[in-house]
Amino acid sequence: MAIWRYKTDDGEYHPEAPYGQDGRWRWMLKDTDFGFGLYGKSVSHNTLAFAAGDTYEGYANEEWAVFLFKTLLKNEEFRNEFINRFADQLNTSFVPSRVVPIIDDVASILQPEMQEHTDRWPFIKLTSTNPMETTWSQEVTWIRNYTNSRPTYVRQHILSKFRNNGVTGTAYVSLNTDSTQGHIKINSIDIVPDTPAVTNPDSWNGLYFKGVPVTVKAIPKEGYVFDHWEGIPGGLQSSDTVTFTFGRCEH
Fold first, then answer.
1. In this structure, are residues 4 and 25 in contact, taking their beta carbons and an 8 Å threshold?
2. Cα 174 to the center of its chain, rounded Å
3. Percent of the chain having pLDDT more than 90?
4. Which ranges carry the Bacterial repeat domain (predicted)?
5. Pick from 181, 222, 165, 178: which is nearest to 204 by CA?
6. Is the dihedral of CA 14, 17, 19, 23 positive or negative?
7. Under 8 Å between Cβ of 32 and 141
8. What H or E segment, with its residue span, contains residue 105?
9. Dihedral (C-alpha) 48, 49, 50, 53: value to the nearest 10 degrees?
10. What's the CA dihedral at 32, 155, 248, 232 to 10 degrees?
11. Cα distances (angstroms) measured from residue 189 to each of 55, 59, 68, 99, 135
């Protein structure tokens, strides 16, 4: 990931400045080589500790490269937003039941080209009797297995990294509604059919982190109005937007 900002004369943010010159931080995803354990990284590799500079592995996470992220994590608002966004993505985009079919689809597209590919670059074989050689199908299977196992490890990485910040465990959130009348938004996720891995917007479950405030919002459809929550503790049942820190909650 590349991160940069235009340095204004006074170092402040100037919203009236020309595009790209207002002093805000910008980012661009440009390199995902560490995805799915490339370069020998195991499924349990603590990439969070690597990215935050807690461990030094000799390359790619020198002090200058991790300074910004490591410093931002000291800010409570950023830290909670990061943890919640992490959980949101694990509950949607990276659910194995969603990712594995994508892997299979891509593999089926590449399959007809693999004979020519392996003939030209034979470090990966289509078939082999040598146990020291890796075949293409074995690599695809390895990626599938990585997909199924990785979420458990990265949740543990969050707990290990932020335990001293009050993150003490995980808890399920259950959201039940009538999607003909509206939907619920939790943090950055709209619980609607178009959201990745949301198969039933009327009854949805997600795994979040204890000690980190979570925000839910009721969004009625046209012609309906929000009335109240059920299962929210305290006096917040009548507010359409509620933020709470929880153990196990069902709403």
1. yes
2. 19
3. 70
4. 206-245
5. 178
6. negative
7. no
8. helix 96-110
9. 120
10. -30
11. 32, 35, 26, 18, 39
